[in-house]
Amino acid sequence: MPASYAYLGPEGTFTEVALRTLPEAATRQLIPYVSVQSALDAVRTGEAEAAFVPIENSVEGGITTTLDELVAGTPLMIYREVLLSITFALLVRPGTQLTDIKTVSAHPAAQPQVRNWLKANLPEAAWESAASNADAARLVQEGRYDAAFAGEFAAARYGLTALETEIHDAENAQTRFVLVGRPARPAAPTGADKTSVVLWQRDDHPGGLRDLLGEFATRGVNLMLLQSRPTGAGIGNYCFCIDAEGHISDRRMAEALMGLKRICREVRFLGSYPRAEVNVADVAAPLPGTSDGEFVAAADWVARCQDGRF
């Protein structure tokens, strides 16, 4: 039996399409799960080697279900990311016309991406959320809803017809997916990498967030995502999910993380991994004074001063 990857199912989701772009997916058993939580729990319990789930889209930002699962519980680590361009089709049972549609369904993250189209074309239709876009298509097949927003590729899988295609409110919309496994040594740096962490402050004080961000800024580390998530400890209690440009083996990133470890109540490392669709040649050079060589030279100078050799 080959090693297995869990993913947000059922079959026919954008998640499955994105997962199949990974070369290693061809050598794994791909098992759909009903939710992001159940897919990640399969990794935590050892039922699956890794899980593949959505984490961010270019219209609404972070997928809170995934972020919250990575923030809480037994630690997990991100190994890979995939970007997938997203456009929706309106899937219906054969013979259904636009005027017949009274209910539509999709994953909640789809709604902001089709809201304007829905208002213009089906203003009276009631929205019903589903566990995934493919699950919405399955529910249409069963007769529970009249139409589903899903990938056009899901139509054949569920015996439906694409009544409308190329539906999107925002041009060039993309969703980012991540391959998540149990903690292990990060892959070697590629020169075009991303590091993800979660930060908890020691206390709430003026300039607290500035202090956290300053650990990155003073070392020339560029941030790519910053999102607060409630800790569950009451109104106003938040942790911060951060994606930063670079790898933990880069001296500037390592020193930034060490600085954060000193001032934060808790730091959860979520992994250093290759950035999707980015070539090393396109990565900006480090700011003056923040290259690995300059960090090494500065440390050597301090050592010589300590030895009286300055």
Summarize the structure.
The protein has helices at 14-19, 36-44, 64-71, 111-121, 133-141, 154-157, 208-217, 251-263, 292-306; strands at residues 4-8, 29-33, 50-57, 61-62, 77-85, 88-92, 103-106, 126-129, 147-150, 161-167, 174-181, 193-201, 223-230, 238-245, 264-274. It is of the alpha/beta class. Strands 1, 2, 3, 4, 5 and 11 form a six-stranded mixed beta sheet that branches. Strands 8-7-9-6-10 form a five-stranded mixed beta sheet.
Explain what this protein looks like in three dimensions.
This protein is of the alpha/beta class and 310 residues long. Helices cover 27% and strands 31% of the residues. The protein has 9 helices and 15 strands. Strands 1, 2, 3, 4, 5 and 11 form a 6-stranded mixed sheet that branches. A hairpin with a 7-residue loop joins strand 13 (223-230) and strand 14 (238-245). The longest helix has 15 residues, at 292-306. The chain is elongated and about 85 Å long. The model has no long low-confidence stretch (mean pLDDT 93).
